[in-house]
Design goal:
- By secondary structure, the protein is an alpha/beta fold.
- It folds into two domains: about 170 residues, Aminopeptidase (3-Layer(aba) Sandwich); about 70 residues, OB fold (Dihydrolipoamide Acetyltransferase, E2P) (Beta Barrel).
- The protein has five helices and 13 strands.
- Helix 4 links the parallel strand 5 and strand 6.
- It is globular and about 60 Å long.
- About 45% of the residues are buried.
Length: about 260
């Protein structure tokens, strides 16, 4: 784990990259930002989490870090120990956690703790869509206040560019740097189910309502159809080994929710 702290005093904010070693957009976005030698008005911490996996060119070394929290300092696995170390490093901070995906190019945010601090981050991340994934166990943002942002397609230049834009907006919205920003009011969805299955081609569109009875995935001559209307989230043809993705319902705009 590599930690870079900027500014004077104790930070209240952190930007995390490379929870998964094969998702490099966050690392590249942080490096681009730091290369500009920015003027920092408030302290902030940058963390490149799973450096060993990055160096190996793999998603993880022993096990998926994002399914390992809270971890254990005496764990037998690299990620088990790293999860505990990372939570200790980020304790009490508002966190922006940068990822990439195979499901869609447009960025969207994921959160698990519906706290004022989490919504504070959401408003400053400049994202049009956010998903409550508290239905899904595990994940860094299940253990602290903050959001994970899927910046775009894994390995793409666009994901890095999106990551840098989101990072800069988050920092500007918290007074860390002088850059124009505007508060976002994302459309919010809540995951309600895992959609099981392997080898399916996803034929619908994420965040677009699938009516009851309509097919949303296909495997040869077999189709998966919606028993009732839902919104696909994190669905893709190649994103998972054991599931197609997740089903969700729409909650409304962030400003319409109780928080």
């Amino acid at each position: 784990m590599r930690v870079i702290s900027l500014g004077e005093g104790e930070p209240e904010l952190a930007v995390v990259a490379c929870i998964h070693g094969d998702e490099l957009c966050g690392k590249h976005a942080v490096e681009r930002f730091l290369a500009d030698d920015p003027t920092i008005h408030e302290p902030v911490k940058f963390v490149v989490a799973n450096e060993a996996a990055v160096d190996a060119g793999r998603r993880y070394v022993d096990e998926d870090l994002n399914r390992t929290f809270p971890g254990d300092p005496d764990a037998d696995t690299h990620e088990g120990r790293l999860a505990a170390e990372l939570l200790d490093e980020l304790a009490g901070l508002r966190v922006l956690d940068l990822h990439s995906t195979l499901s869609m190019a447009e960025p969207f945010a994921l959160y698990q703790r519906a706290t004022p601090e989490t919504f504070h981050v959401l408003q400053r991340a400049g994202i049009d869509r956010a998903v409550d994934i508290s239905h899904v166990p595990g994940g860094l943002v299940g253990y602290l206040d903050g959001v994970a942002v899927e910046c775009g397609i894994k390995g793409s230049d666009a994901a890095t560019e999106n990551g840098e834009r989101i990072l800069r907006g988050f920092l500007a919205g918290n007074g860390v740097i002088d850059t124009e920003f505007s508060l976002a009011d994302p459309e919010v969805f809540s995951v309600t189910e895992r959609v099981e299955g392997t080898g399916y081609e996803f034929i619908a569109e994420n965040f677009v309502r699938v009516p009851a009875g309509e097919a949303f995935a296909r495997r040869h001559d077999e189709e998966l159809t919606a028993p009732e209307a839902f919104y696909p989230v994190l669905m893709s043809t190649d994103g998972y080994d054991d599931i197609v993705g997740f089903g969700a319902r729409r909650l409304g705009r962030l400003s319409e929710l109780d928080h």
